[in-house]
Amino acid sequence: MKKIKSGFSMVELLFVMAVMAALAAIAIPSMSASQDASTLTSMKSDIRNAINTVQGGAVDSAGDFTQVFTAGDFTEVGETGLTAALDSGDKLVISAGNKITLADGTDSSCFSVKVTHAGLTLADGTTAKEVSFNSCNGGKITAN
Predict the structure, then answer these.
(1) FRET pair for 77, CA 20 to 30 Å: which of 3, 4, 11, 67?
(2) How far is CA 72 from CA 16, 28, 102, 121, in A?
(3) CA 42 to CA 39: how far, in whole Å?
(4) pLDDT, tens only, 80-125
């Protein structure tokens, strides 16, 4: 009587492992790019929130940005981020991993905001470490 062998041969197992390795090689870079894109989005969101908060506070102080905040760095604390209180009493929410720097402009009618995050790579392969805004220089948000 002939015995029936059960299980997979070594060749079959190696073939399955090779297919899984090929799929992983395709999937991992796309997941990394998605994570970098979401980090850049959080940086842009933080800078827009900071701009709106500072401009809203300036409305209450007759357009004088020096009454809204004291120039300096605000860094997230913990996983949920930081809610920083500005001089105007307004709150500035910062996403986890981001650091916001507020600076006075050339006069009291303008200001600048910079958001930094270590280790961010853009889709074109360049490394972006900051997103910035300067209300004195046309008010555009740029990623560097």
Answers:
(1) 67
(2) 55, 38, 6, 26
(3) 5
(4) 455 666 776 777 778 877 888 888 777 777 888 888 886 666 666 6
Find the Cα–Cα–Cα–Cα dihedral 27, 33, 35, 36, rounded to 10°.
160
Helix (H, G, I), strand (E, B) or coil at 14: helix
Beta strand ranges found along the chain (DSSP E): 72-75, 82-85, 91-94, 99-104, 111-121, 127-134, 141-143
Which DSSP string corresponds to 25-36? Answer: HHHHHHHHHHHH
- Distance between CA 71 and CA 100 in Å, rounded? 11
Contact 76, 94 (CB under 8 A): yes
Q: In terms of pLDDT, which residue wins out, 34 or 51? A: 51
d(CA 96, CA 107): 31
- Would you kindly state where each structural domain of the chain is located, as residue ranges? 10-143
Token couple for 29: 């870079």
User: What is the distance between the terminal CA atoms of the chain, rounded to a whole angstrom?
Assistant: 75
As given in the structure block, the two tokens for residue 37 are 């894109």
Please spell the DSSP secondary structure of 119-131, one letter per residue.
Answer: EEE-TTSPEEEEE
